[in-house]
Amino acid sequence: MNTPDVSVVICSYTEDRWDMLMSAVESVRTQTVRPAQTIVVVDYNTDLYKRLIFTVSDVVILENTGPKGLSGARNSGVAAATTGIVAFLDDDAQAAPDWLERLTALYDDPDVLAVGGRAQPAWEAGRPGYFAEELDWIVGCSYRGMPKVAAEVRNVIGANMSFRSEVLNGVGGFNTALGRQNTLPLGCEETEICIRAVIGSPGSRIVYEPEALVEHFVPADRGTLKYMLRRSWSEGISKAQVSKVVGHKRALGPERQYVRRVLPRAVFIGVRDWLLGKDKDGLRRAATVVAVLAVTTFGYIQGRRLPAGSSSAEEEGQNASVSSWREIN
User: Fold this and answer.
1) Selection from 25, 31, 27 nearest residue 11 by Cα
2) Which residues pair with 11 in a beta bridge?
3) pLDDT tens across 32-62, in order?
């Protein structure tokens, strides 16, 4: 089977994830479709960079030459890529052996600009009973309500995505005013770049292929209510920033369907199963869905009032999310 050459970019910023980073690299080595390049970009961590240089010999090791943060690191990886397709894998994720094969198969359609796959959570301490699968976007994973077969979508998921190189270069790369910076849980840079890509190429498509699978590690502290609400607030802030760039309708189209259809069903099932005695955590799960929606909405409203890239978003988010949960309880 003829498949396009691919460069895989993995971004990392801390030695705390060393073992996971090595597992991510190893999962790329064992692909049924081997990448032409594997590029690890280190985001402003000299010790990690030196350790990689002296440890890993079959991978391109780079330092982020752009602004600090995930978007800047990704752009540095794209600049070093020499192939027609660039795939991105998180440093705490492991790709299934046929991951690249599944992603690249869809590029035989010239109208496909980007292909993303399913990110399945690998819970360090097991899924908390109050954490609905409809909320798995909070931990950077595919959530219940997404397509079960290959389908056109607005945007891909950051832990498991690929783009044509010409698309990334044509839109000027990822927006460095968006995206995670160390532990600051902002995001939506994938959403924004996908929207800009489609705007610049009418008739083109972004595709989600759930058969292209990665397992995304979820540490125990990201399953806590505090993190869920903090991340929800940041999501609202981030969506507001994106809406300022691409417009309100483009930024929130799928979210409207999600809020109207997916979340009400999750709340209904949680309450129903609790009342019928089928699930003792059902009521808590339903309450958490409502809380996440409320905090995300408040974050969006606040984000519309903030200047783009405001550094005050995180501090305000921590205070607001914690106080909101206390009020709900």
Assistant:
1) 25
2) 41
3) 999 999 999 999 999 999 999 999 999 999 9
